[in-house]
Amino acid sequence: MSLLDALKTEDYPLATELAASSSDADIRQALHDSFFMQNLHRHWCAVELLITLAQRGIVSLSLGKDQSNEHTSNKGDSNDEPSLPAELLAALELDTPAPTAPAYAIAPELLQHLFTALQRQSQQNDIEQQQQTLALLTGLLPNVTQLDSDHGELLRDAIRRQLPLTVIEQLIAAGCSPLALARDQSNYLSQIVRSVAVTDGRFAAYMAYFLAQGLNIDHADVVRDTPLSLAVKQGDCDKVALLLDLGADTYLLFRDDASLLALALAANHAEVIKLLQQHGLQFDFDSVDREQQTLLYRFLKGPGDVDLKLLALLLKDMPDLYQPNRDSYRQSPQATPMQRLLEKSPAALQLALHLLRPDLNQTDADGNSALHLAAANYVNYEQRRADDILARVKLLVSYGADATLRNHQGLTAAEVASDDDLKIEVVTWLKQQESHT
């Protein structure tokens, strides 16, 4: 049987034996005629044959870029003379070197096919086939060069595919560095958080293994994300809990100096907030952002209503509803969380009043109490808004707001509300409260 016939029938042991005694030209011709390289996805298990071809220089098992012309592309870095072009060789009556056929670069594709097979076999729990594929990988890896190229992408891909830990161990033993960083400067722990689920125990096994290799659990990438901050943003309580148990630092600050609780709040992950609070973390209501606004103010100033569950978790740490903030979009440069709260649903207001019991007769620089501010809210020609204002002023009075207080213009809350006919019920009800006082 010829080499071509062996390739076509996929008799790889025979093809390996015949290739060893064939010329390079004959091998290349057989590969060409059988479309072997074009169908490498069918021939990935022919590892021994491909290693033989690599030893002959017919294929390349390097994961790096071709470095054969490196000395000509870095002038001044080498003393090697450039090769003579053909016309000069002819003028000197020298033989022109025969062109060397380029080697087929197969390492990236071959490893991808092996990884795909291992991934499928792992998902199907096909232990026998998986062991056979692992044996092929074990034989191949010592022959692959520049395993750590492209910022450790090979090992990163194995993690993304959640391959068995034995594959990770083989890759590192063959030359992949566990300390390699990705382009965003994240380490493999961050890749594990991004890619691996907690459910089958592989997440914990990966984490323990890479930590044993010397990786820093608090390593931050270029945008200051750590494995723990990534897990918090994902809202994955299981990952967060495991990372906390492994000793991840809970007091680091992240992008824009945000805390872990602030990240969880921004991503609307109430259960993660609960978990972090159980570990002793509290919201920082004193720090301000670049706009000189506190965490509570930013949360309340967003459009629409707030998530009551998130609001309850925020209020658990007893913030000051009258803490001044700067807000260029409001008439007063000193805006407070209370002002924003009075624009939210009556349910949100009642939650805050119930948990915090604030002094509702405290006034701002213009002498306005919370009741004045609630009565002054715009209705924008919507009856629903007027109904909400009525519900809010009733809540405020029931929690101790004084309807007779006058601001610096000498106006009561009822008089402030009289600026819009849709608020007639608000005015009527507040005047009744004034007469009862």
TrEMBL record:
ANK repeats lie at residues 223-249, 366-408. SMART domains: ANK. Signal peptide: none annotated. It holds the Pfam family Ank. Keywords: ANK repeat, Repeat. The keyword Repeat applies. It comes from the Bacteria. SUPFAM superfamilies: Ankyrin repeat. This is Ankyrin repeats (3 copies).
